[in-house]
C-alpha cells in the first residue's frame, strides 16, 4: 500500500509555475547557486565560532539558555489578522534586526491589488487544526 502512494507521488505532473524549473531530486539536494552554498557554510562557520567563544568565556549554560530563548521566541506569533507577526524578539536575539534584504520592501502582499483581508477566526481554526485550507485566502 505504501508503494502505491509512492508511485502516485512520482507519477504526478510537475507544476512549473509553483515549484520552478529545477524541482527534481537534484534541486532538492544541491543549492540553486554555488554562491548560496558558500554563504550558508560561512554563516554556519561563524555561528559555530561565536558559540565556541561564548562557551569559553561564559560557560556552556549560556549557550543552552540562548538556544532555549531562541526556541521560545521563534514560536511566538501574533494571531492571524490584520497585523503580521514581526518576530522582533527573535530578530533582536539572533542579530538579524540590522539585516535589510529585498524581501523587506519588495512584493509586500498588503500592497497587492488582489489582497483580501484575512479572516481571523478561520486562521485560528486552521492553526489549531479544526479547519483545513490556507490561513489567508489571498495566498492561494
From TrEMBL:
Domain of life: Eukaryota
GO CC annotation: cytoplasm; nucleus
Membrane-spanning segments: none
Keyword presence, Chaperone: yes
GO biological process, one term: proteasome assembly
Keywords: Chaperone
PANTHER family reported in the protein's UniProt record: PROTEASOME MATURATION PROTEIN, PROTEASOME MATURATION PROTEIN UMP1
Family designation: Belongs to the POMP/UMP1 family.
Name of the molecule in the record: Proteasome maturation factor UMP1
Biological source species: Digitaria exilis
Amino acid at each position: 500500500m505504501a508503494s502505491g502512494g509512492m508511485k502516485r507521488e512520482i507519477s504526478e505532473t510537475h507544476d512549473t509555475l509553483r515549484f520552478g524549473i529545477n524541482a527534481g531530486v537534484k534541486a532538492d539536494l544541491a543549492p540553486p547557486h554555488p554562491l548560496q552554498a558558500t554563504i550558508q557554510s560561512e554563516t554556519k562557520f561563524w555561528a559555530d565560532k561565536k558559540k565556541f567563544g561564548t562557551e569559553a568565556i561564559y560557560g556552556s549554560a549560556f549557550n543552552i539558555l540562548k538556544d532555549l530563548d531562541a526556541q521560545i521566541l521563534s514560536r511566538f506569533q501574533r494571531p492571524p489578522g490584520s497585523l503580521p507577526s514581526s518576530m522582533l524578539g527573535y530578530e533582536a536575539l539572533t542579530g538579524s534586526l540590522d539585516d535589510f534584504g529585498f524581501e523587506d520592501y519588495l512584493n509586500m502582499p498588503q500592497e497587492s491589488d488582489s489582497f483580501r483581508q484575512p479572516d481571523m477566526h478561520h486562521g485560528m481554526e486552521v492553526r489549531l487544526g479544526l479547519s483545513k485550507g490556507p490561513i489567508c485566502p489571498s495566498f492561494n
